[in-house]
Amino acid sequence: MLRRILSVASNTFRETIRNKILYAILAFALFVIGMTFFLADLSVGDFARIIADVGLASIQIFGVIMAVFLGINLVSNEVERKTIYILLSKPVRRFEFIFGKTLGLSVTLLLTTLAMATVLFLVHLSYRYGGRAEVGIFIASAGIFMELVLLTCLASLFSTFTTPVLSAIFTLSLFLVGHLTKYLYVLGEQSKGAAVRWGSRFLFFLLPNLENFNFKNEVAYGGLSSFSILGWAAGYLVCYAVCVLCLSCFLFARKDFK
Amino acid sequence: MIRQGTVLAIEGLSKSYPTGFWRKPVCVLSDLSCEVRENEIVGFLGPNGAGKTTTIKILNRLAFPDAGKVTLFGGVVPDGADVRRRIGFMPEQPYFYEYLTGGEFLRLCGQLCGMSRADTESRSSELLARVGLSGSRGTAIRKYSKGMMQRLGLAQSLLHDPELVILDEPMSGLDPMGRMEVRGIIRDLKAAGKTVFFSSHILSDVEALCDRVIMLHKGRKVAEGRVEELIGAETLYIELVVSPVLPADRLAAAGIPPEAGYAQGALLVLRAPDNGRANRWIAGLLREGCAIISCVPMKKNLEEIFMERVESSGTTGAVS
Fold first, then answer.
1. Are residues B84 and A3, on separate chains, in Cβ contact within 8 Å?
2. Per the count of CB atoms within 10 A, which of A43, B60, B233, B234 is most buried?
3. Stated pTM of the model
4. A 26-55 residues with CB below 8 A of B?
5. 3-state DSSP call for residue A130?
6. How many other C-beta atoms can be found within 10 angstroms of the C-beta atom of residue A158?
7. DSSP state letters, B79-102
8. What is the pLDDT of residues B291-311, one digit of tens each?
9. B267: closest CA among B291, B295, B236, B238?
10. Tell me, what's the ipTM?
11. B65 prior amide bond cis, ω within 30
């Protein structure tokens, strides 16, 4: 089983890294991150903080673009191009296919996030003229990567039953909502109606809480130096991603290919 | 009850697809039952839209039936890897990952089938040579022609040396040479003890290859049997080809009615309704100084049988 998942994953990885659009997005992302070096000169205040702040925001935005763009086509491309016919006629179970595709894309996102974080780290390091390098950039980038993995799982879930355009809309909507769920909870708790309170609590636990992966502020204000902070985020990611992938497998298990 | 030696048994298979929220679903398969026995070549015949591809998709878990069941190697079509390893499948107009080369694609197939790297490499070389793609092993699939894709599709279906090979329209998109090669491969598979189940709407290919045929029309089985049984022993007429073309008066002198033949270039083609008349006509033609080029007893072909069965089953429609 593991070998088949890894075979599907390595093929997906190969597919995504041979995608020219991915390189175009990555090149633009690296350019923007590199430009933060000059942006700091134009701003007032803590220059290193601005580099970290803008750079990490760039990593997140471009990472989300890559995750959504590649994630929505994860299953639908295989169905549309009918390559899935050959894959599923082999001794590959449908859940192995879903897990393999998601794993393959996650590896691609890991490499692209790492590339962007490394460039930001170098920009940050060079701006400080040899001062203390900010390891927090990598910690915050790890958080962004986890968020991207979760978005990939959601995009692959949507791509099992709807079109790529709708998958993109749903995934981006959840990205936006995922950063606002705590406000939903707070607003719900202020309500006098029990139904509204319970409804908001239900949505708070149902929707992804992407703020669990957000360490950008801690890095910008220099308060993050240990990777141990990622433990809770990693636990949340595993639980949520497994649930989403199980739902994807359930929906995909009885899908007819016309 | 499934007989011993049955590789594939289909019982009461029905399938319909939804066409919209308000519209009625379209029935593409209706109560189909048939079986394929060990070491047989079975042709699955029918015009476009007959339900052949849907049946084949159900056999490969790409679609699920509304009713009925499929039994492969004695077990109801399962999700299990063990059964899948015994089946090779080539879809109609196969599509592949265009960013891979032919060799890389076969390596991926080998990994998915649980083959070792060494086995995959040796089988790939052997099969690529067999389908005439040895020189294109390192070429990106996006540069392959339609015929090359079809050949690669055949190679991947045979890579893991399956016992049952299911081919959906294996001859489509191939030139006459390619079709002949595929026929040769199918015959070799039978000689190696494999079972082949393939769909086609090219009846002449099926007639040349198959031990048995299953004919499908509008989702229903209209005939099933051995090719020689379906064609039968009855001779429809005897076709005589003679030279030169005789004028009507000399034909009459040879005892042949003018409406019994037609000129085809420098040749005269005659259709004698029975052996007795064919013998008398030959004697008369020789008297008139004609040379007999050929004398062939003509039997029904599968195409005629198919049309007959479709008409008698009352499911007439466009037949390609």
1. no
2. B60
3. 0.81
4. none
5. coil
6. 24
7. S-HHHHTTEEEE-SS----TTSBH
8. 999 988 887 777 777 777 777
9. B291
10. 0.78
11. no
